Amino acid sequence: MKIAIRMDDITPDMDWVKFEKFKAILDKHGVKPLIGVVPDNKDVKLKKNEPRKDFWEYIKSLQNDGWIVAMHGFNHVYITKESGLFPIGDKSEFAGIPYQRQDEMIREGKRILKSHGIVTDFFMAPSHSYDRSTLKALVKNGFHKMTDGYGTEPYEMDGLTFYPISISRKKTLKSKKEGYVTFVFHTSAMSDREIEQTEKLFDRADIVSFDELFEQKSKVKGAGGALLEYITAKSKYIVLWLKRELKRK
Is pTM, for the whole model, over 0.85? Predict the structure, then answer.
C-alpha cells in the first residue's frame, strides 16, 4: 500500500518549530504532501505562536515547489455538533449549516486564498465533517477535489473526486494490497516522540508525494458504497468513543 501525507491546520500562528521538524523529514525523503491552509483562522486552539509575517509568501513557495494546497475550511470554528456524511467526529464548521451560509463561507475562503496568490480547487473539511450542502457549494465555487472518505483509490461522488484517508494506520502498514491511502497529521499537536516515530515510519513504509494520486483512475461511488462508507466511519467513531469512556472510569 502506498501512503500519501496530509497535514492539517496550517495557519500563520501554528507551532512553526514542529512544522519545520516535520518538513525536514519530508524533504529528506523527497515527499511533497497535501497541506490544509485555513483562510481566516479564528480557532484559538490553533494559535500557538505569533503569526508568521511572511506566511502567505511561504505557502506560495511551497506550492511552487510541488506541495499541494487545500483550503481547510474557512475560520476553523466548529458551529454544530453534526457529524455529516463522513461521521468520524461529532462537530463541524459546515455540516448542518444552511446551504446559503456554506456557499458564502466557501466563496469567501477561496477569495482570501486567491488574494494572497494561492489558487486551489482542493478542499479539506475541518474534523472531516461535511454534508450534501457543503459538496454542492464546493462544486458551485470551482472545487473539484476533496480529501476524505475511505478506500484505496480515488473515487467520484457528487461532482467531486475524493482522495481517501486510512481507516487504520496499523492495518494499512500490514496490508499487502495495492492502492493508495492518506495518513493525516496535525504537526502542532504532535509530541517530539511522535515526530521521531514519523521519521521511522518514512524509513519502513512506501511514502509517496500526494500528486502521485492524481495519476490514478477514479471510480464512481454509488449509493451502496456511500452507505458502507458511512457505516464504517460511524462504527469507528463509536469504538473510539467507547474506549475514551472506559479510560475515564
Answer: yes
φ/ψ of 169, rounded to 5, equals -65, -40
DSSP 3-state percent helix, strand, coil across the chain (nearest 5): 45, 20, 40
Instruction: Write the CATH number for 222.
Output: 3.20.20.370
Residues in the chain: 249
Q: How many CA atoms lie within 13 A of 93 on its CB side?
A: 21
Q: Which domain holds residue 29?
A: 2-248
User: What's the pLDDT tens digit per position in 144-178?
Assistant: 999 999 999 999 999 999 999 999 999 999 998 89
Q: Which of 73, 21, 13 is nearest to 194 (CA)?
A: 21
Domain count, the chain: 1
Query: Which residue matches cell numbers 456557499?
Result: 103
